[in-house]
Structures are given as C-alpha cells and as structure tokens.
Amino acid sequence: MTFPNDDTGNVLAEMQEAGIDLNDMHDVVFFQLFEQEAQAQQLVDHLKTAAPEMKVVIHPDETPNVWDVDCTVKMVPSYDGIVAQEAEFEQLATTFKGYNDGWGIEA
C-alpha cells in the first residue's frame, strides 16, 4: 500500500513497515487537548451520550494545566478513515474549546 506524503500517510507507512496489518481492525486512539479540566469533561460527557461504545479516558497531560481526552475507536486504519475521524474530532474538540492532537494505534 502507498500513502499520501503527509503526517497521516507517513505514520501509516511506518506502521506498515513495522509489520502492522492495516487491513485488520485496531483500537485507534485520537488525542484531544484542553486547557481546562471542565472543558475536557464536557467532551467526555458528550461522547458518553453520543458514542457510548467509544472508550474515552480523561487525564492530566505531561504539560502543566493541560488535560487529555483519549478517544478509542475500533476501526480499520485506512488513510481516508483516519483523516475523516480526525476532522470529526477536531470539530468536536473545538466545540468544547480544545483541539485534536493526532492519533495512534494501541499496541
């Protein structure tokens, strides 16, 4: 498989080179960052209702005064699927005054 030459494409290519089968279902984690715990909690509360099957974890970031919301989606990590899901999370995070900060696959 070949991927576009951007951050998402490069990560997928590295995963493929590392032997990860990108045709299988994986737990893909999308990272959202917030400056206030209350804003992060609003996203968590929203997702509990909107996507109850999604695993959502809130925790303090390594950076002081920053909160992470890790959203795990079970999916086949295709380029188009990742890009679409990231755009959806970016829009959602922005609604609660946060932003999407990338993704990864739980190994």
Automatic annotation (TrEMBL):
Where does the record place the Regulator of ribonuclease activity B domain? 6-104
Q: Give me the segments passing through the membrane.
A: none
The superkingdom of the source organism is Bacteria
Q: Which Pfam families match?
A: RraB
**InterPro entries the record matches:** RraB-like_sf (IPR036701), RraB_dom (IPR009671)
What is this protein's name? Answer: Ribonuclease E inhibitor RraB
Q: Which organism is it from?
A: Thalassotalea algicola
